[in-house]
Amino acid sequence: MSRLFFLLSGENLTLPASEARAILETEGYAYKIVELMDQVLRLEADVESVKVIPVRAAFTRLCALEMFVSEANHVDIARVVQEVDFKSVLKAGESFVVRINRIKNYADQTINTMELEISLGRQILNQAPEAKVNLKHPDKTFIGIITDEKLVFGLKLTEVSSKTFSERRPRKKPFFHPSAMPSKLARCMVNLAHAKTEGTMLDPFCGTGSSLIEATYIGCYALGVDAAKRMVVGCRKNLRFFSINAEGLVLADARKLPFFKVDSMVTDPPYGRSASTLKATTLELVCDVLTSAYSLLPEGHRICIASPKTLNISAIGTSIGFKHVESHFAYVHSTLTREVAVFEKKNCKEIKI
């Protein structure tokens, strides 16, 4: 177990950290949370675990091997950095660069980030005189994050590009619908559902195919269902555009799913003026699809479902028999905030008789 830290996206207060934890759990890596800071998650885990983050994560920007944490002031940084063994990660002849990122305005009156980069670079050279600085193409990058009035500093292990998600945003797809879920949120929901490589992931309201696309990109077998023929045709068009072959795309009522078993479920049932609600209320749809999910999912498996915050979906899922794992809230516009809820089918030992 090594001390690591993840730099998280600031797009949502709670989703990024939960997604990172869900990825590690899904991939079978043990971890221990050390501290959750503003856009930084510090934890203990196997260094190998960071390899799965660029493949799966939507809301993590980079992962680093933690070398020290100090108060965000020059005196404490100078004291702590003297105790760090930079030679352990920097070989003779290797080049490096130091980069400092500031979250929001933390320590903005105390620390000049450029001056701190230079100062820390000198400290590293003092310890490893055979190393050299290369600002453009370094062999290794040391990254510091100023957040919560602290400096978290370490060796960057991997970085996550958000470019591919922007290329798959709803309006970039050949078939667009105003209710389409953003690709980043869809990927995050797939992760929160603990969807595994070569596992079967079902979206009973697949719409334009956002969840199917994101699940396929991490190696899932994706199944999509929609009651509107226009949506099924449009979804298939989007899948073909990204060269994706879904395991199945079915025109059917999500309340009467034609399946016996799936490994995980991710969905955003229709609500609002722009989406078909099968002549039912959103409440009725959510109750019915959660009931169907309960019969389809094996014990210990999960569904991640979005709905309007006003629906109180956590209470609905619990009443059906699910264990409510967590909920997150994503602002859409002035009249809609999504609740992204994660439910797990209880094991027999958890069910009280």
Q: Can you summarize this structure?
A:
With 353 residues, the protein is of the alpha/beta class. The protein has helices at residues 15-26, 53-56, 74-81, 113-127, 163-167, 183-192, 210-217, 229-241, 282-296, 313-320; strands spanning 2-8, 31-37, 40-45, 60-71, 95-102, 132-133, 140-147, 150-159, 200-203, 221-226, 248-251, 264-267, 302-308, 322-333, 336-345. Helix 1 crosses helix 6 (183-192), helix 6 (183-192) packs across helix 7 and helix 9 (282-296) packs across helix 10.
Structural notes for this entry:
- The chain is an alpha/beta fold and 353 residues long.
- 28% of the residues lie in helices and 30% in strands.
- The chain is built from 10 helices and 15 strands.
- The protein has helices spanning 15-26, 53-56, 74-81, 113-127, 163-167, 183-192, 210-217, 229-241, 282-296, 313-320; strands spanning 2-8, 31-37, 40-45, 60-71, 95-102, 132-133, 140-147, 150-159, 200-203, 221-226, 248-251, 264-267, 302-308, 322-333, 336-345.
- Strands 2-3-1-4-8-7-5-6 form an 8-stranded mixed β-sheet. A 7-stranded mixed β-sheet has the order 11-10-9-12-13-15-14, sandwiched between helices.
- Helix 9 links the parallel strand 12 and strand 13.
- Helix 1 (15-26) crosses helix 6, helix 6 (183-192) packs across helix 7 (210-217) and helix 9 (282-296) packs across helix 10 (313-320).
- The longest helix has 15 residues, at 113-127.
- 42% of the residues are buried.
